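Re: Re: ligand-bound prediction request (bumping)

Still looking for help on this. To restate: I need the protein modeled with manganese (II) ion bound, output as structure tokens. Inputs repeated here so nobody has to scroll up.
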Amino acid sequence: MRPRIGLTCSVRADAPAPVHELSDAYVRAVVAAGGLPLLLPAVGGEDLAAEMLAGVDGLLLTGGVDVDPAWYGQEPSPRLGRVSPERDALELPLARVALARGIPVLAICRGIQVLNVAAGGTLVQDLPTEWSDAIKHYQDAPRWFGSHAVEVLPGSRLAELLGQARLRVNSFHHQALRDVAPGLVVTARAPDGVVEAVEAADPRRFVLGVQWHPEAMWEREPVFLHLFRGLVEAARAAASGGGAVSPAGL
Ligand code: MN
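Reply:
Sorry for the wait, this slipped through. Here it is.
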């Protein structure tokens, strides 16, 4: 049996005929990694989040629009981008419940931001105007192209999965982590110091967030599929009871 991986979707709620949608790249990455992708529509809040998680073995928080800064106690900066109240209302509880239950989590782009805020951290609302000497983090290049370097923390789970201390990643974000939540540790940074990856401080937990988009890179650079394999294998272990770690926050 393939471990069931729940993937969050976006919703175009203001369209004449609203639709939930998710890039095919995430779905194919989960299948290629050996998982069974199950799409979680952006509907409901804490109640539905808990029930959705009861039906999956692992959670993949996908990319998308900005997190409403109200979730980390701030007012919107003039440079804040589009937000999705529907996604926030579901995904923040999804992340919190997954962390509390010890469900394996892979968080990508917006996902790493959701993960950090859910665990008590804050965000930079706009890198170009709020981060001194920021490099270009919203590339004008193909999705698969690694446009900037990241330095990976030796000994981290990320380093173990990627097998490299330095690599180039794609970049499609104007926000980033500012205060990293308790229980998470930074495992990769861009040359300008911007956080590019975090993971659970507890090495028994599979909680991994990356600011780049590995789902758009793995077909050309197979090393990036290892992040999805890591999630799927952790979900398999959790489903069989072998990887269960007593829930204690993070
Ligand atoms: Mn970047």
